[in-house]
């Protein structure tokens, strides 16, 4: 299971309370040790049985397997008379008795949304300021339960509206998260402040914007909330609204003076946030209001954000609005990435977004603006569809990435030795396979070539040599007559493909490559020199397929 999918403590406790409430309504439950009759009587609401059992106070002071005392079971069942009887029968501080998890009867009743039980506990002296182990107040839990009456009863009973939980989260934040305008009005009348901040420095206004609640947003603004308030990380309320994508929230903030050109500490503007989240309507609003100077100062284009988020529709809108498909990250932002990426196309390719890749390529995005070419990224990730798009856009299939290894043969082959389909894509796209057979092992070595890694040296390492036979067999289909060096031959002789390879590369003239095959190579070479791809040349279908190695043509004997 993904750790992010695991429920947190609050969710587990909510579930426990919910199940307990359901138990009181007729669902069976496993009673705690030493007091099954008492627990069953609480669940049934059997007042006669409870009167008898309450004559044995020892049973009231024993927790069950879940760490709950009888008074806690009574607090989360809907019959207030049951709770009242248990409280009067219990000895000691039953009103504030915590469970083993730190929940009091009042926090449990508030979480369960049981108004009468809460009012009874308050009437008998339970403190509305006492919190559970998460430092959550009964008032916060009542807001979360969604009960206006419960919130009102707690405030009348002395609850402090501004009391903070462990994360400095207040009832105002919780009501804003839920968009409960009625509860917010009650809290504001009772001393709630719109300027409260949680431990992240976020105000209730930002919470309402983040969760897309325009009515709550409007109420908070009317009560003096600052539409340009910013969290310590520089995020503005408008950025939070752009994240949620609610156009009503965005328009409301803009009408009250929110600044669309205010960057966060990470240099992101609201338009970047909308593009990254794929909020098309928000983007339509923000594009004409965001200054190009602000975008230039941010060092990144919203095109980067849309490509990184994988939103082709946002990319199309931005490009139609005049944004450059070839915009580059400024250097200091590119240095935040190990690969020093700079182009929007790189983000789309590296994240595997084929639709975004196509939109950018159709808009004229260049494939070679990054230190590591986009084609190499796609090949390394095994993304066949994206490789086809890049090759169709004339990406350089014979590019090199010398920072890792300086090779005689073009780099792309290194990333697909186990993927024959990908190898054939590259080879059909013009990969210079003959460079894999350039080697000086059997002659006096060229001083200029000493630092370059040849294919035979590369494939001959212990962890790759088992792939040599299959790789060389494929390469030979795309070259003319070649000679194998002694080192590569020694590696290949242990493979089952060796007889075929040896016959194909025999140095004698007894088995030359066919004229048809050699003609295909010459035609492809000439087309490549002219900057034309075989797929784009108007040729008969069979001839085009032959040039693309997609159909075998039987040639007469030479």
Tell me what the structure shows.
- The chain is an all-alpha fold.
- Among the domains are: 9-160, Alpha Horseshoe (Serine Threonine Protein Phosphatase 5, Tetratricopeptide repeat); 521-558, no CATH class.
- Helix content is 48%, strand content 0%.
- The protein is built from 32 helices and no strands.
- The chain has helices at residues 9-24, 36-44, 47-53, 70-75, 80-89, 105-112, 115-123, 138-145, 148-156, 171-178, 181-189, 204-210, 214-222, 237-244, 247-255, 270-277, 280-286, 292-298, 302-309, 312-320, 331-334, 344-350, 354-362, 374-380, 384-392, 420-428, 455-459, 468-476, 486-492, 498-504, 515-529, 541-547.
- Helix 7 (115-123) packs parallel to helix 9, helix 16 (270-277) runs antiparallel to helix 17 and helix 28 runs parallel beside helix 30 (498-504).
- It is elongated.
In short:
The protein has 558 residues and is mainly alpha-helical. It is built from 32 helices and no strands.
From the structure above, extract its key features:
mainly alpha; 48% helix; elongated; 0% strand; 558 residues; Serine Threonine Protein Phosphatase 5, Tetratricopeptide repeat
CATH class of the domain at 9-160: Mainly Alpha
CATH superfamily of the domain at 9-160: Ankyrin repeat-containing domain
Largest sheet descriptor: none
Low-confidence stretches: 21-34, 552-558
Query: Which fold name corresponds to the CATH topology of the domain at 9-160?
Result: Serine Threonine Protein Phosphatase 5, Tetratricopeptide repeat
Name the helicity range.
40-55%
Report how far the terminal alpha carbons are from each other: 64 Å
Overall mean confidence score, pLDDT = 86
**Structural classification:** mainly alpha
What is the number of strand segments? 0
The percentage of residues in β strands lies in under 5%
**Helix run count:** 32
CATH arch. level architecture of the domain at 9-160: Alpha Horseshoe
How would you sum up the global shape?
elongated
Q: Rg from C-alpha positions?
A: 36 Å
């Amino acid at each position: 299971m993904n750790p992010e999918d695991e429920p947190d403590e609050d969710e587990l406790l909510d579930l426990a309370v919910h199940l307990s409430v359901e138990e009181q309504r007729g669902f069976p439950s496993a009673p705690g040790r030493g007091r099954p009759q008492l627990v069953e009587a609480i669940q049934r609401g059997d007042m006669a049985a409870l009167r008898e059992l309450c004559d044995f106070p020892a049973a009231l002071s024993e927790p069950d397997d879940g760490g709950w005392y009888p008074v806690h079971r009574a607090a989360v069942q809907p019959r207030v008379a049951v709770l009242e009887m248990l409280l009067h029968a219990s000895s000691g501080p039953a009103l504030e008795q915590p469970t083993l998890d730190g929940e009091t009867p009042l926090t449990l009743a508030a979480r369960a949304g049981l108004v009468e039980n809460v009012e009874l506990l308050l009437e008998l002296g339970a403190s509305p300021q006492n919190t559970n182990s998460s430092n959550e107040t009964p008032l916060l839990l009542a807001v979360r339960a969604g009960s206006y009456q419960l919130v009102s009863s707690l405030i009348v009973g002395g609850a402090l509206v501004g009391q903070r939980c462990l994360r400095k989260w207040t009832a105002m934040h919780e009501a804003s998260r839920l968009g409960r305008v009625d509860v917010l009005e009650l809290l504001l009348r009772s001393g709630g402040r719109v300027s409260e901040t949680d431990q992240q420095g976020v105000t209730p206004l930002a919470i309402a914007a983040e969760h897309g609640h325009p009515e709550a947003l409007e109420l908070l603004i009317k009560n003096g909330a600052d539409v340009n308030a910013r969290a310590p990380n520089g995020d503005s309320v408008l950025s939070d609204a752009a994240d949620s994508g609610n156009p009503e929230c965005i328009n409301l903030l803009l009408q009250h003076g929110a600044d669309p050109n205010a960057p966060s500490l990470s240099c992101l503007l609201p338009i970047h946030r909308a593009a990254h989240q794929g909020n098309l309507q928000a983007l339509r609003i923000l594009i004409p209001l965001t200054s190009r100077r602000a975008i230039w100062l941010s060092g990144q284009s919203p095109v980067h954000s849309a490509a990184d988020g994988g939103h082709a529709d946002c990319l199309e809108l931005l490009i139609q609005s005049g944004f450059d498909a070839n915009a580059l990250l400024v250097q200091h932002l590119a240095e935040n990435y190990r690969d020093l990426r700079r182009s929007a196309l790189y983000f789309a390719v590296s994240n595997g977004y084929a639709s975004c890749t196509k939109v950018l390529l159709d808009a004229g995005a260049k494939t070679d603006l990054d230190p590591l070419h986009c084609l190499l990224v796609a090949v390394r990730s095994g993304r066949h569809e994206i490789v086809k798009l890049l090759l169709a856009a004339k990406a350089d299939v014979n590019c090199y990435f010398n920072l890792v290894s300086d090779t005689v043969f073009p780099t792309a082959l290194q990333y697909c030795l186990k993927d024959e389909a990908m190898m054939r894509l590259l080879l059909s796209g013009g990969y210079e396979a003959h460079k894999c057979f350039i080697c000086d092992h059997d002659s006096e070595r060229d001083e200029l070539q000493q630092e370059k890694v040849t294919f035979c040296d590369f494939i001959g390492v212990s962890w790759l040599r088992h792939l040599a036979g299959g790789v060389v067999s494929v390469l030979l289909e795309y070259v003319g007559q070649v000679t194998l060096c002694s080192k590569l031959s020694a590696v290949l002789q242990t493979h089952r493909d060796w007889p075929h390879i040896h016959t194909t590369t025999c140095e004698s003239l007894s088995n030359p490559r066919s004229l048809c095959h050699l003609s295909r190579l010459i035609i492809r070479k000439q087309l490549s020199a002219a900057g034309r791809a075989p797929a784009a040349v108007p040729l008969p279908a069979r001839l085009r397929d032959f040039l693309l190695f997609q159909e075998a043509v039987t040639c007469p004997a030479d």
